[in-house]
Amino acid sequence: MNLPASTLLTLWETGVAYAPAARPAALLAVSTGESVDVTARLPLGQRDACLLDWYGKLAGTRLSALTDCPQCGKPVELEFDVADVQRPSGGNGTVTVDEAGWSLTWRPPDTLDFCHAAKPGTVEAARRILLERCLTTSGGAANESPPAHLMTRLMDLAAVADPQADVRLALDCPACGAAWQAPFDIGAFLWTRLQAEALRLLGEVHELAAAYSWSEREILSLSPARRSTYLELTRRT
Ligand SMILES: [Zn+2]
Predict the structure, then answer these.
(1) pTM for this one?
(2) Which sequence spans correspond to the domains of the chain?
(3) Between 5-16 and 23-32, two packed helices, what is the crossing angle to 10 degrees?
(4) Spacing, Cα 63 to ligand 1 middle (Å)
């Protein structure tokens, strides 16, 4: 990533301090200068669109990753463009179904909703939490749940209205020919890259500090070319 070493470590340090569910909003806050209170209130799709845009500017628009084939278990390399995982914005993502005396409104979940739902529990419990937080209903008798077909229609509309929140990539395995769809999560992808680069950088600081007794600040202020040359020299001895 095209970031000064100190900025990269600040981002990594910020990310480490947050739970995985909250981390994308925290990274976006650092990158945009907004407060986490603001980025955590963005619908997930809108938040991820901002992260993708930011990543494209930092690291280029070509993305690569490794995954395992669900059929044969062999590693599969993927390469794609930011444009391949960008979805058109569908407005603010709130959708409504009015029918048969019912009025159902769904607002797209944000990071705070997701953090509540991501607490240890079952998938069903997470779904219930999201419904409690994001669904508003009126109609029906007391304690009556909305009809299932209206809920299905509402959720179908919600998926169309916030498409960036659930991006899937079509993958195939060159070894066994299996084809499948895998979710793409820019927050997790970005964190994996940041984590790898930060740990590599800290390892370099460790080696150079031990060899030359330089401070972290002095080592990080070296250009990448000088840093790698000194590292090469210390490893020769
Ligand atoms: Zn395979």
Answers:
(1) 0.84
(2) 5-88+168-236, 95-161
(3) 150
(4) 21
